[in-house]
Amino acid sequence: MNEFSELDFINKMYEEDIDFDRHFDETLVNKMNWFVSVSGGLDSTALAIICSRDKKWKYIFADTGDEFPQVHEHLDKMESVLAINIIRVKNEQTLGEYELEKKFFPSPRARFCTRMFKIEPIERYLEQFKPFKLAIGIRADEDRKSNIADYAIYPLMEHGIGKCDVVTLCQEKGLIPQYPWYMSRGGCYSCFFKSKNELLGLAKYEPELFDKLIERENAVQDKRKKHYAMFEHLHRRPLGTVKKIAEEQEQIEMFEEGGRYAAECGVFCRK
CB under 8 Å to 201, separation ≥6 — which residues? Predict the structure, then answer.
């Protein structure tokens, strides 16, 4: 798509009658409510740019309570640039409140955070709009299954839109997400997929956010004197120790080999 501008690309889609709802008969299309899942990441931003040309689309974001402040700033900018309104939903509790009540952290083996604090709040809100379809920003060049739910559709994947395309779309609108430079992606600052280097960066450059994580980790400990780590890959090293290391280091070598996210936490997060 590099030879096309963002507007040329979108116009080409519409001139060729390439529409995201072409698989549905006209009667169903007219009755259907169409939503775009927005996370504040690059892919969902590009999807929103494309869909903003058609007024039938509505936009929805699920707030866990742990997003970086830059995520909300980006959502505000999207609303202004694209002249759209992003519906913001959340669980009755924030992720942090739930962890403190249950004394339990999400982890690679217990990934309840995406389901409870992203997917379920969106599903509860959309129930009132049946029938509905939710467009999700999975690119054509991603190795990811597209079987989240019957209501989900994947326009970027279906129309062959890849990483270079979404970057071009976002650049031309001035909507490249701006997240902390020491993070490989945005999303939740408490995400268990964050590398050791990213946690050191968070401790050094966002001490107030990191202190919140330390408080949560300390509050969840039990009487067994066996440290329960918020981040398993720290091998039971308390976050307070990580903070001391960050304070003592004069320079942090960011994003060395193996320092980036080892996995993705889900299509509703940071996409």
Answer: 180, 182, 183, 246, 252, 254
Assess if residue 24 is contained within a domain. yes
Residue type at 125 in one-letter notation: Y
**What is the chain's mean pLDDT, rounded?**
83
pLDDT digits (tens, 9 = 90+) for 182-191: 887 778 999 9
Q: Please give the helix or strand (H or E) that residue 82 lies within, else none.
A: helix 69-82
Q: What pLDDT does 236 receive?
A: 78
The rounded distance, in Å, linking the Cα atoms of 110 and 96 is: 15
Q: Domain range spanning residue 74?
A: 6-173
Whether 162 is in a domain gets the answer: yes
Give the per-residue pLDDT at 18.
46
Cα 249 off chain centre by? 30
pTM check: above 0.85: no
Q: What residues contact residue 127 under an 8 Å CB cut-off, 6+ apart? A: none
Q: How many domains does the chain have?
A: 1
Q: By C-alpha distance, which of 243, 228, 154 is closest to 192? A: 228
